[in-house]
Amino acid sequence: MAILPSPYTLLALSDTKGYSNQTEAVANLAKVLHAEAVHLVSKGIKRIQYDEPAIVVKQSLGSLTKDDLDLLQRGIEICGKVDGATTSLHTYFGDAGPIIPYLLNLPVDCLGIDGTETSIAEILKHDYSDKELALGLLDARSTSLENPLEIAEQLRRVADQTHPKKLWLTPNAGTEYRGYTSGIRKLRLLNEIKVMFNE
User: Fold this and answer.
1) Taking Cα atoms as reference points, which of 107, 151, 152, 104 lies closest to residue 128?
2) Fewer beta carbons within 10 Å, N or C terminal of the chain?
3) What is the CA radius of gyration of the chain?
4) How confident is the model at residue 182 (pLDDT cuts 50, 70, 90)?
5) Do residues 174 and 182 make contact, with C-beta atoms less than 8 angstroms apart?
6) What is each CA distance from 152 to 113, 114, 136, 156, 195, in whole angstroms?
7) pLDDT at 16
8) In this structure, are residues 47 and 24 in contact, taking their beta carbons and an 8 Å threshold?
């Protein structure tokens, strides 16, 4: 798997000049990202993950607009489908709950949701039968270890009620935030929960 920034987050973190508008800018960034994804697939990569924190951060802060959603959609329309690879859009560092219906309509194979910011109740409101679902239920920003029984039970509820094509358990974000030792502990916990879930 290779991880790339989503075109919307890349736009939000960039100083873009020389474009007539933001739509033109996000389209250009998305084309560059799509070309990189195609190159990675040609080298044997089978899964492309686009990291998208900016849209849910804005949603959580109450500053999200229809223009933001339109820009995300435009970008993902260009780079969200890559021949020969599964694509995934991962949101984190914010509550995705209010915009899950919108995210489900984007042209990616998998939707990633930060389950430490988005409530399970919100996640359970939706049907994911057309997508894979990656749930970030382990908090990579905390050194505390979650209760594996509780996490396994949450996974069972999501699997039984929302019917995703595949269900993935992940940290809510990269594990580098609290160092190597904490990251390893979180990854070991992932495996422990997987065993419980499959029993």
Assistant:
1) 104
2) C
3) 17
4) confident
5) no
6) 16, 16, 13, 6, 9
7) 85
8) no
CA geometry: angle 43, 54, 187, nearest 5 deg: 60
pLDDT in tens, 74-96: 999 999 999 999 999 999 999 99
Q: Where are the domains of the chain?
A: 2-198
Task: Give the confidence band of 43 by pLDDT, cuts at 50, 70, 90.
Answer: very high
List b or e across 51-65, with b for residues whose CB sees 16 or more CB atoms inside 10 angstroms: bbbbbbbbbbeeebe
Amino acid at 115: G
Does 183 have pLDDT greater than 90?
no
DSSP letters for 128-165: -TTSEEEEEEE-TT--SPP-HHHHHHHHHHHHHHH--S
154 and 139 Cβ atoms separated by less than 8 Å: no
pTM for this prediction = 0.94
- Rounded to the nearest 10°, the torsion over CA 40, 44, 46, 50 is -20
User: Is the four-CA dihedral 141, 51, 159, 184 of positive or negative sign?
Assistant: negative
Using alpha carbons, list the distances in angstroms from residue 18 to 5, 13, 179.
Answer: 21, 16, 40
**Does 2-198 carry CATH code 3.40.50.720?**
no
- Residues 109-156 have pLDDT tens digits of 999 999 999 999 999 999 999 999 999 999 988 899 999 999 999 999
